[in-house]
Amino acid sequence: MSVQAMRAASVRKGVVIELVSVLWMMVEAGVAVGAGIVAHSLALVAFGADSVIEWIAGVVLLWRLSLEAAGASLERVQRAERISSWMVGIALWLLAVYVVAAAAVKLWTHQAAEASAWGVGLAVASGVIMPYLSTAKKRIGQEIGSAALRADGACSIVCAYMAWTVLAGVLLTALLGWWWMDALAALGLVYFIVTEGWEAVQEARGREDACGCGCCHD
């Protein structure tokens, strides 16, 4: 098999894995936001909001990979990806501001989150699925020389970290009645959210090798 044929095969694999990721982000966002609103869980709502932003980024990357698979020029797609990176980065930083402000209000008013079976199930599923997607994206990104796909893989593992943080907050609130744990878990997500925002902005500025997650360097 020629080098060009091997690259084409890898790009097609990238399209498939990114499509799976985009579909899962839709499920993750819907369940997290819905369960978070019902259970009054700021951590779950923030997790869902981050999933929406990651879904947007995933759709743009899927578009780029699909065009490459069809043999189109990447110049126009790269320009669109830079614009999307700016939008995603700014949106993530605004999300971080919202989480901090909402957590402060919850701590001030002693508002507790209720137990959420949906939230627990989602966090466990995301904690298992996202590391697999991260490994696949990084491997394919390395094969086709796509810094964007490798960075997306890094963000997938960050999503797994966020899932386990949410899970810890939900379980401790449900089992021990620690009303303040949900707010603290939400604040724990701020580091990941700001890091992803920084990464997106760096990519928008043309630093394609930038990865604020610290997970891209093998």
General description of the model:
- The chain has helices spanning 3-39, 42-69, 75-109, 117-144, 147-176, 181-204.
- The chain has 218 residues and is an all-alpha fold.
- The chain has a single domain, classed as Alpha-lytic protease prodomain-like, CATH 1.20.1510.
- It starts with a helix and ends in a 14-residue tail after the last helix.
Helix and strand arrangement:
Elements: H1 3-39, H2 42-69, H3 75-109, H4 117-144, H5 147-176, H6 181-204
Helix pairs in contact: 1-2, 1-4, 2-3, 2-5, 2-6, 3-6, 4-5, 5-6
Relevant terms:
Alpha-lytic protease prodomain-like; elongated; 218 residues; 6 helices; mainly alpha; single chain
The fold-level CATH name is Alpha-lytic protease prodomain-like
User: What is the beta-strand fraction?
Assistant: under 5%
Encode the helix/strand succession as letters: HHHHHH
In terms of per-residue confidence, which ranges show pLDDT below 50 for 5 or more consecutive residues?
A: 211-218
- Give a short account of the largest sheet: none
CA gyration radius, whole angstroms: 18 Å
Structural class: mainly alpha
Q: What is the number of helices?
A: 6
Per DSSP E runs of 2 or more residues, the count of β-strands stands at 0
Mean pLDDT: 82
Shape, principal axes of CA atoms:
elongated
Helix content range: over 70%
Count of domain modules:
1
Q: How far is it from the N-terminal to the C-terminal residue, by CA?
A: 27 Å
| Second-tier CATH architecture | Up-down Bundle
Task: Report the CATH C-level class.
Answer: Mainly Alpha
